[in-house]
Amino acid sequence: MKDEKIQDLIQKEISRQRDGLVLIPSENYASPEVLAAMGTPLSNKYSEGYPGKRYYGGNKFIDEIEALAVERAKKLFNAEHANVQPHSGSQANAAVYLALLKPGDKILGFDLKAGGHLTHGSPVNFSGLTYNFAFYGVNPKTELIDFSEVEKIALEFKPKLIIVSTTSYSRILDFAKFSAIAKKVNAYLLGDIAHIAGLVIAAEHPHPFPFCDVVTTTTHKTLRGPRGGLILCKEKDEITGGSLAQKIDKGVFPGLQGGPMDHIIAAKAICFLEAMQPAFKKYQRQIILNARAMAEEFKKQGIRVVSGGTDNHLMVIDISSFGVESKKIQDGLNELNIYVNRNTIPNDSKPPYNPSGIRVGSPAITTRGLKEKDAALVAGLVAEFIKNFGDKNVKIKIKQEVQRLVKKFPIYNNFKW
Ligand code: DSN
């Protein structure tokens, strides 16, 4: 690269990813093929519209790429319709709201503090600023979604859309129960499966179809593809009788976005093909086994796991009894090349910038090849760090263990930049 400064920083970031244990549950390592597609001249093309109906010339091959991505997405998720153009998960959600609602319409979302997402109604996000949100949370004792509460709020609030989602909820999302509630109030049901898309494909988590009208996801988390978004939906709008697929497509373009990112769409198509392989199913199973092993280790070490465990790829541990701020834990682990993110726990008494929890997940370390015993060992290192915060010898020992593990389970070793 002529730009040596950027070249050097990219190289440093690649090394950081190689040499560290990523426990942030929304991060992963995309395959070299996926990465390669993102760095192609496809990025140069403008292609507003959809295959066969573009506003610019020269889209012959772009059309074929997008059509292939759509076909694969539909097959992979057993969906009647797919839109592969959303630039991100947030854009995908925005496009769905735009397609189905008017500003001020009512949406029932999962409380961000209990495990929801910024775009599910946070007052500082476009969603909360544009639409009228009510929230369901989790039961304070069990820390599980309480369906009698969801139903009660839905009957009183009468939303036009209900969102089922998770960014930090570690339990199964029961789409069938949500669907029964949505039907009672004649609301659309949106499943935001950004975190669990890979688990869903591999049948390690219940499928959102046929229960949800629309499903949004990112393509870079458990799905392990390029950074981007995806919308899947039923062909027919079961509430108004029109075409849901057409509404969603219009919501994305021209509603929300201009030109799609064709290099990313090609990378999405590659990731969908990867996700159809038997090895992907095995990988998702291992994600679950590793997450369970980590949760068990935390509990063994006397660290409370929110809701008592995990059914998916992540968990939130409650560090409030250790007298150390979660930001300090996150920053301290950074120095040892372990990456986590601080997170609220249900009904957290502390603010989101410095909450009482740490969110931990297994997708990235599972991509490296760690199995249950190794995952438990990693959880043990995090636990040791929390329980002996500030102890120099403990830090030295953890750093050595991290170095040993990243050597034993290498990633991107043959990746040339
Ligand atoms: N920022 C993502 C996460 O970390 O869960 C959600 O979009």
Molecular structure report:
With 417 residues, this protein is an alpha/beta fold. Strand 7 (161-165), helix 7 (175-184) and strand 8 form a beta-alpha-beta unit. It folds into two domains: 32-275, Type I PLP-dependent aspartate aminotransferase-like (Major domain) (Aspartate Aminotransferase, domain 2, 3-Layer(aba) Sandwich); 286-408, Aspartate Aminotransferase, domain 1 (Alpha-Beta Complex), CATH 3.90.1150. The protein is globular and about 65 Å long. It starts with a helix and ends in a 9-residue tail after the last helix. The chain is 44% helix and 13% strand. It has helices spanning 4-19, 32-38, 60-77, 89-100, 126-130, 147-157, 175-184, 197-201, 244-256, 262-275, 278-300, 326-335, 363-368, 372-387, 392-408, and strands at residues 21-22, 49-50, 53-54, 81-83, 106-110, 132-136, 161-165, 188-192, 214-218, 229-233, 304-305, 314-318, 338-339, 341-343, 357-361. Residues 26, 89, 117, 167 line the site of D-serine.
- How many E-type strands? 15
Structural class: alpha/beta
Corresponding CATH architecture of the largest domain: 3-Layer(aba) Sandwich
Provide the CATH superfamily of the largest domain: Type I PLP-dependent aspartate aminotransferase-like (Major domain)
Summarize this structure briefly.
The protein is of the alpha/beta class. It has helices spanning 4-19, 32-38, 60-77, 89-100, 126-130, 147-157, 175-184, 197-201, 244-256, 262-275, 278-300, 326-335, 363-368, 372-387, 392-408, and strands at residues 21-22, 49-50, 53-54, 81-83, 106-110, 132-136, 161-165, 188-192, 214-218, 229-233, 304-305, 314-318, 338-339, 341-343, 357-361.
